[in-house]
């Protein structure tokens, strides 16, 4: 299969990179040996060197092994962004067990589902989140409790308590006494364990390292299995695509949630297997992030569209010399062209868009820094093949034709945890090649750049016409008074589905702009079958944990109202 995108790789970019047959802890320990005195983590002023991080990881791994954690086990990480998250992640993998990261904003119902589905018997839990764990009614064999203030300086501990109070208020959590007794352990006490761990026999290809839950294209969340080889591959492929990133010299702010595949692999793993310093934030406080970028001379910035949309208007954004940063990445959702233009005008820098999924192991397609093509996802990163197949048949379609994007790469998932049928349905075999079906609609142009059109599950069928929700949203975002939009299909017996636009207006336009005005605006810009028949004005739109408008929740709300 031809790879037209390789013509647009610049000098130094590698079409393929070698992925060593090593485990994640082995690569991490190699960095600890090379950059022992260098800060691995900076947490609200508290610095932890690579050598100190190594010591704590090995101590916790030894303690976990002593408690019976090992190969074949799953350990849940129910922890906010913090040094404890990173220490726990590496320590669990060092025992040969697998981690399953859990969102700290999950309700007890959602937590219960993931614990039961993953089969986790051990959980490392933030103290403020213990109430949710207790509500699940699950009797975990081992509960390791940690407080956010354990790594804060004395002055910053006051800040930490304030952060926790705000978080608890948002989550409707109350401070409850954590019981003592068998099966309950304190994180810091386990770190006092003398490291005597005998490295288990871990197969980088066969042994599961991470089970990260994804909504997939249909059904309840499913655990995406990644082995050690796949996790290491993601970081190496990114570095092959960005050859200007230097081992042992990069500093990255880590404010995106580390339980999400973006934060987990693109920031945490790429950083710690490359000798970088991670400046960790428990919550994404904009002022603190901007101050840290300058104070610690950060060299990269990893954000999501909502972050860039906010920053381009924020008065303190000019505090940062953005031109000094080597790389500004945007992932997790598509970036509106208006945001890109406004950002470049404001900062004089370009945002590099990336595309990936939990199932594809983080990152698959990225816009080249030297030759970006606005409005596209970019080109496949090293070691990655991408193609477009027909929506209703397992066959390739030519450039320019919309179909489902499929991927092959060393970081593509092993499959879904304990769900062989769902795994089978997520892969397609064409001409003897096994492809990951992304569930995303798009096309490849003649130069090999990929264009995102929509999610297959967001496709709206109106009188036999296919309406892409994103097409309608892009038009809505060009309206001067529209702040946010989420488009869905509403079931209708006569036409199949009616296009409905959920719109948040700019504050000054609320109560002034009418439904008729929005519909008329769309009629001037869209084919008749794409025009919304219903416009609902809302104060806000439901969002995912990384800031994307959640069309799924909008659809669920609509179904409940019917």
Q: What labels would you give this structure?
A:
Rossmann fold; 3 domains; GMP Synthetase, Chain A, domain 3; 24% strand; 562 residues; 5-stranded parallel sheet; 27 strands; alpha/beta; single chain
Topology record:
Blueprint: H1 24-34, E1 39-43, E2 46-49, H2 50-66, E3 74-78, H3 83-95, E4 98-101, H4 108-118, E5 122-126, H5 130-136, E6 142-146, H6 154-171, E7 184-186, H7 187-190, E8 208-214, E9 222-227, H8 228-241, E10 251-254, H9 261-272, E11 277-280, H10 286-295, E12 300-303, H11 305-311, E13 327-330, H12 337-347, E14 352-355, E15 365-366, E16 379-380, E17 385-389, E18 403-408, E19 415-416, H13 420-426, E20 427-430, E21 433-444, E22 450-455, E23 459-462, E24 465-468, H14 469-477, E25 482-492, E26 496-505, H15 515-523, E27 534-537, H16 551-561
Parallel strand pairs: 1-11, 3-4, 3-5, 5-6, 6-7, 10-11, 12-13, 13-14, 26-27
Antiparallel strand pairs: 1-2, 8-9, 9-19, 14-15, 15-16, 17-18, 18-21, 20-21, 21-22, 23-24, 25-26
């Amino acid at each position: 299969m031809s790879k037209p995108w390789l013509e647009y790789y610049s000098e130094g970019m590698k079409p393929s990179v070698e992925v060593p047959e090593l485990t994640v802890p082995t690569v991490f320990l190699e960095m600890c040996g090379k950059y022992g005195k260098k800060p691995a983590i900076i947490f609200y002023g508290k610095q932890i060197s690579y050598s100190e991080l190594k010591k704590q990881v090995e101590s916790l791994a030894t303690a976990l092994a002593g408690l019976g954690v090992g190969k074949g086990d799953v350990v849940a990480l129910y922890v906010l962004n913090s040094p404890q998250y990173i220490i726990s992640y590496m320590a669990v993998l060092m025992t040969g067990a697998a981690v399953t990261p859990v969102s700290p904003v999950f309700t007890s119902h959602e937590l219960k589902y993931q614990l039961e589905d993953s089969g986790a018997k051990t959980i490392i839990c933030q103290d403020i989140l213990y109430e949710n764990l207790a509500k699940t009614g699950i009797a975990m064999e081992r509960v390791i409790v940690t407080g956010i203030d354990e790594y804060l300086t004395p002055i910053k501990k006051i800040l930490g308590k304030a952060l926790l109070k705000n978080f608890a208020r948002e989550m409707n959590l109350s401070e409850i006494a954590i019981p003592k007794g068998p099966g309950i352990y304190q994180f810091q006490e386990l770190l006092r364990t003398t490291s005597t761990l005998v490295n288990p026999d871990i197969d980088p290809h066969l042994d599961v390292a991470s089970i990260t839950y994804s909504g997939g294209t249909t059904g309840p969340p499913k655990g995406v299995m990644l082995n050690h080889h796949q996790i290491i591959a993601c970081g190496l492929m990114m570095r092959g695509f960005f050859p200007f990133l230097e081992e042992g010299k990069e500093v990255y702010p880590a404010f995106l949630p580390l339980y999400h595949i973006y934060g987990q692999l693109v920031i945490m793993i790429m950083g710690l297997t490359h000798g970088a310093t991670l400046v960790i934030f428990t919550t994404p406080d904009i002022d603190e992030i901007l101050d840290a970028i300058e104070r610690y001379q950060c060299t990269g910035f990893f954000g999501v569209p909502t972050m860039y949309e906010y920053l381009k208007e924020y008065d303190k954004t000019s505090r940062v010399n953005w031109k000094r940063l080597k790389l500004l990445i945007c992932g997790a959702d598509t970036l509106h062209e208006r945001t890109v233009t406004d950002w470049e005008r404001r900062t004089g820098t370009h945002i590099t868009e990336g595309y990936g999924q939990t199932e594809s192991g983080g990152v698959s397609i990225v816009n080249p820094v030297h030759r970006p093509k606005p409005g596209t996802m970019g080109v496949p990163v090293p070691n990655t093949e991408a193609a477009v197949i027909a929506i209703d048949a397992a066959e390739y379609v030519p450039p320019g034709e919309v179909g489902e994007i499929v991927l092959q790469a060393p970081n593509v998932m092993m499959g879904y945890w304990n769900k062989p049928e769902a795994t089978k349905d997520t892969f397609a075999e064409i001409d003897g090649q096994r492809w990951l079906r992304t569930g995303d609609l798009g096309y490849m142009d003649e130069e090999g750049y990929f264009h995102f059109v929509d999610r297959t599950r967001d496709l709206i069928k109106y009188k036999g016409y296919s309406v892409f929700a994103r097409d309608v949203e892009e038009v809505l975002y060009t309206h001067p008074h529209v702040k946010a939009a989420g488009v869905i299909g509403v079931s209708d017996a006569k036409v199949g589905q009616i296009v409905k636009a959920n719109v948040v207006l700019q504050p000054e336009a609320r109560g002034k702009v009418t439904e008729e005005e929005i519909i008329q605006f769309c009629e001037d810009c869209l084919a008749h079958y794409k025009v919304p028949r219903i416009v609902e004005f809302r104060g806000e739109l439901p969002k995912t944990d990384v800031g994307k408008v959640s069309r799924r929740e909008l659809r669920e709300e609509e179904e409940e109202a019917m």
